[in-house]
Amino acid sequence: MKIEITTLEGAEAGSLELDEAIFGLEPRADLLHRCVRWQLAKRQAGTHQTKQRGEIARTTKKLYKQKGTGNARHGAASAPQFRGGARAHGPQTRSHAHDLPKKVRALALRHALSAKAKGSALVVVDDVRLDEGKTKVLKERFGKLGLSNALIIGGAEVDENFARSARNLPHIDVLPVQGINVYDILRREKLVLTRAAVDALEARFK
Question: pLDDT tens, 99-134?
């Protein structure tokens, strides 16, 4: 698969042959769904918790005698029926994470890359470097490229001026190639890869 390379100024910078095994697959929604669900579940804090009956600081004295009152049989004010009592079957602190095989995660990433390539939402730029960290400058360059909602993947390290300039732009995410993931790819309209990022991805999946 051949794709044209551009610069941040919108000029042509040659072309690149993309690996069909990474960017030319037929996207599978089930794989993408499994990986996104795994990512979102893993990042949940799971710190929500309500008190059970044994954790409520209320008297354990019997409210009234067992028989003869006509009321229900109660033994403590910490029961869920009473105001100030415990909550029945409430959430408890736990991990929401579940397992997903490493090979499935790697395959899902290739399908996410292929989905962007197939949908003409993949842009390859020569490099992402700026001489000054000014958001206004970067916004003008993104306007030339038609980027308003995009994930930008740099090389092993992202240029500091570029990262600082993009930080204040809404719907723009910047990550090094090590941080590329399925969820961030799918949540943005465009995927922008540098030439170094493409080389790193092809080396990773060899």
Answer: 999 999 999 999 999 999 999 999 999 989 888 888
Burial of 29 (0-12, 13-18, 19+ CB in 10 A): exposed
The structure tokens listed for 127 are 């490099």
Q: What is the pLDDT of residue 9?
A: 84
Query: Could you tell me if 7 and 187 are in contact, meaning their C-beta atoms sit under 8 angstroms apart?
Result: no
CATH class of residue range 2-44+97-204:
alpha beta
Extended strands (E) in 54-166: 122-125, 150-153
CA gap 52, 49 in Å, rounded: 9
The model carries a pTM of 0.84
Domain ranges of the chain: 2-44+97-204, 50-90
**C-alpha–C-alpha distance, residues 206 and 18, integer Å:** 13
Low-confidence ranges of the chain (pLDDT < 50): none
Return the sign of the alpha-carbon dihedral for residues 28, 34, 35, 37: positive
